Amino acid sequence: MADLTFRPEIEVLSAADGVRRRHWSDADKLRIVEESFVGHRQASATARRHGISRSLLTTWRRQFRNGELGAMRTPMFTPLAVSATPPTSASMTFPASSLDNRVEIVLGNGRRLVVAVDVDPQALARLLPVIDGR
């Protein structure tokens, strides 16, 4: 006599069978993010080099700017160019006499800060992390 009951075959899949997610330490994330900011490197090239998606690197970069990525970055030296001619930006309209007593600081996030030459260094040190978004 034939057994006519339906018995589907069941395949059990285990998480151990597939590739597990990688867990990145904050130090590794910081190293990769800082590498993506160096020079004129493309973020997609940095992501490809480390085997991560561009969207993940973008998320890490945003967390870095917001100070959510573990330890704060250490201060770095920024290239500085001093020119005798004032910038020709239409948004910067200062009287000609005050341009001689001002310094323009371009921050890592693209923001510009124009301060007097005799600005208090402690006040500037407190102001820069707020404006830079760190």
- β-strand number: 2
Number of helices: 5
As for the number of domains, it is 2
List segments where confidence is low: pLDDT < 50 over at least 5 consecutive residues: none
Distance between the termini: 77 Å
> If you average the pLDDT, what whole number results?
76
What overall form do the CA principal axes indicate? Answer: rod-shaped
Major beta sheet, strand line-up: 1-2
Order of helices and strands: HHHHEEH
Description:
Strands 1-2 form a two-stranded antiparallel ribbon. The protein has 134 residues and is mainly alpha-helical. The model has no long low-confidence stretch (mean pLDDT 76). The protein is built from 5 helices and 2 strands; from the N terminus they run ααααββα. The chain has 2 domains: 22-65; 75-134, no CATH class. It has helices at residues 26-37, 43-50, 54-65, 96-99, 121-132, and strands at residues 102-106, 112-116. The radius of gyration is 26 Å and the shape is rod-shaped. It starts with 25 loop residues before the first helix and ends with a helix. 6% of the residues are buried. Helix 1 (26-37) packs antiparallel against helix 2 (43-50).
Features:
134 residues; mainly alpha; 2 domains; 5 helices; 2 strands
Quick structural overview:
This protein is mainly α and 134 residues long. The protein has five helices and two strands. The protein folds into two domains: 22-65; 75-134, no CATH class.
